Amino acid sequence: MTAIKLDGAALAQQNEIQLAARMAALDEYRHILATILVGDDPSSAIYVRMKCRACERIGLGTRTIHLPHETTTRELLDTLQALNADHAVVGILLQHPVPAHIDERQCFDHIAVEKDVDGVTCHGFGRLAMQVNTFASATPLGIARLLRHYEIPLAGKDALIIGRSAILGKPMAMMLLNDDATVTLCHSHTTDLPDKIARADLVIAALGKAQWVQGSWLKDGAVAIDAGYHIGGQGDMALHATDIERLSAYTPVPGGVGPMTINSLMFNTVSAAEKRSAH
């Protein structure tokens, strides 16, 4: 068996060409993705720079608002309200995580749903679950687009997701259900996880622990999606060459899910710009 390498880096690069063409076809009015960074978390700052560079590559305007760690929930809500009212801003990204003293959920839900290009609002999640057109969370959307591009069958398959976060595990479960997969959503209290993994056709690891899922747990012919990234280029899965030989498809780390996450944020923002232009 030769496993298919789900090359997110190559697909993202290919999609950027299409997104740049879509941006070029829009009116000359400047379309902006506004990013809010609260505090001085170095990883968050790196992610913001990567997203800004992706915007530049496709011709999308950017605005980065860097707020101090001491920012209050009220001050952040006021910043979001100003961006909601700014006609030039077609998408708003509040970089996660924010400092612990801020009510992150309240702030996420203050983003106008039509500008929620990162798919973080409760309203957007509800629309996704009900199969109403909306902007899906960037990482699960990236995974879904990767699976679709490589024509990985989902209908009737047993899919297992490890991790139940509001912006990854839960929306991923809804998207797979919408594609007719049978979904098991696992978490820190799940018992006998290796046994459950061994029965799954598709395993998505999004638990945030380096190399925690062992490749030997995966059944022959399974699809392995690693949504984790840790220092040293490690993912949430420990896949060795002998494990990959038994799989039908897998994502590399790096170069798999990560590039598609940023690309899906761009995809959503370009779609938001097109909707704004149409009105």
Can you characterise this structure?
The protein is of the alpha/beta class and 279 residues long. It is globular. Helix 7 links the parallel strand 5 and strand 6 (182-186). The strands form 3 sheets. It has a 6-stranded parallel beta sheet. It folds into 2 domains: 26-114, Rossmann fold, CATH 3.40.50; 138-258, Rossmann fold. It starts with a strand and ends with a helix. Helix 1 packs parallel to helix 10 (257-278), helix 2 packs across helix 10 (257-278) and helix 6 crosses helix 10 (257-278). The protein is built from 10 helices and 11 strands.
The strands making up the biggest β-sheet line up spatially as 1-11-9-7-5-6
Distance between the termini: 51 Å
Q: At the first level of CATH, what is the class of the largest domain?
A: Alpha Beta
Helical residues, percent: 40-55%
Question: Class by helix and strand content?
Answer: alpha/beta
The number of distinct structural domains comes to 2
